[in-house]
Write the structure tokens for this entry.
Amino acid sequence: MKTDLRCLIRAFLTATSVVGIVFLAGCGGSSSSSDTPAVTPAPSILISGVAATGAPITPAMNGVVTIQDSASPAHTASTPTDGNGNYSFTAAQLSGWTTPYLMEINYQVAGVEYNLHSAATASDLTSGSATINITPLTDLVIANLAGTIAANVFKNQATYANQLTSTALSAGAQALAAQIAPVLAAQGVSSSVDLFRQSFSADGTGLDAVLDALKVTQDPVTNTATITNRLDGSKITNDLTATNTTVLPTPTDTVPVTDLQAITAGFNNFSTLMAGAPAPTDPALLALFDETNFRLDGQSLAQFLQEVTTDPQILGGTLSFADISLSPVPDGVTVPAGATASYKVNFTVLLSGFLNSREEFIAYKNASGNWILMGNQRIAKVRMEVLETSGFTFNGTNNSTSVLCTGLYPQVSDEGGTSGVNFAVVTGPGLPAAGVLLFKTATGTNGNDFTIAAGAPDTYAGATTTAKTTDCGFTSLYPLADAAIAEIAASPMTYTVKLYQDGAGAPSFTNSTLLATYTSTLAAPPLTSTQLSSALFVTAGSATPSILSLATGSTAGTTTVSWTAPTAAGLFASSVHIFVSDQSGVNDSVSKDIPGTATSASLAVPQLANAANAGVTVNYMDNSFRTYWTTF
């Protein structure tokens, strides 16, 4: 009997490698004198797990996991995910590293980069290997512990290493599990589940069904995170700098997660069909919709499909959908007889991977088991959004005085042209008790058919109603003080919009007919005056050739608008608008959707012979659907 020197060397190396793991693979206590070829042992897997958002993060999404340690400078290593979202790192890759480790999964959706994070500590590795998942929930645990979004922790790991202990991570995971307990229970997952270490497959069951059912959105501007139950639309918001104990409401109705998964598949099918630039009468496209009962903001299905199939911004694979959630069908909406299930479906529209808008459709399952879309069943477009602005003071002309403003952006628009709506009244948190009046004008303002009135609803007098003016330069913005914004933040942020039609005789509030009542909910409150800063807005804006010279010229022309992007994180470009007006109030405008990374755009300038004023508005958005308008 003789000792194999190779085994002694291997035993020494592995026994002194990362966190003292002892691994004697391929070595027996003795060896014979035969010359049997040695078998190369498989690599020792130290850390492995699943990276998923519900669906697995795969090579098709450019899924790559990067791990780094807490040394200075940090060691790093990277590995791609497989088709099921699995990843792994070997002991050899991490030999000599310092715990704790942070993992970051980078991936792309429609060309846009996203990331999620997770962590491992020395105690995770004492058994020789560790399962560590990377999901929106592990990302949120790290953010809650550090008091900032997890991406900041990964970028500055040395600063936060002492906070990422095994005890802290476990306690953070347990606290989050307690907040989402109703969703865990609905999917048959124990409330004691280890969100970091629980083995699972991204197959739509168990913990993966929980990920399908939940949406986590982090807001770097306000340092908050919102957890939404996609199965009923309920949500809670965490302050990342505080202890959070609020629990998601227990659903009153049990919604199968398989319904959410099937509806999501239907939206993905819509996206795939649109990538092929279908005709508005394409049978496969029509099969997704209820042709008879469809209505979207007043549009018929034919109007809607004609619009989307001819819009160059959403063809060629640029259209996709995300953050789909379900809630009960609103009162007053009727689904066809024979429907076996129905929901209001809220979803995010993305263009080229960037957020465009938050919308809602009614969906029902027909007798054949297919999910059919009915639009939102509204007679006109009704939206309440948040608007942050940097523009010139309002005095009828452009000047050098620029102000920052924050508030609400109520939108009412007769998209189908047949609703007969003449004015609207909006009530809700942060607004006067009587509500805010919006009235229909001949040309609209800021791309809106309806303009905010200066007075209360009872001052309505038709198109001659006095419009609200502010120092913000945006007649469609309803500015708010910090006290009103605090009221919004502490509320469900839901607004009621009532649509009215003029009666016979002179237009007035009392002599009108209520046509419809709708609600609209904000994704996030407006920013307070302390949160608002110049870093949120574009700078160095210019238009060449000048808009006025082209507007008053003898032939039509195109101007190129250029700007420098905001320096604040988490913002992306959305659209550009140019406008011209004369002293009598006649105006015209042109708008264009743009890629999220754009810093220039070319637009055709409308001609207006007596134009005296002109300008540009560049629109950015954040992941909470706040819009940031800069005018120059």
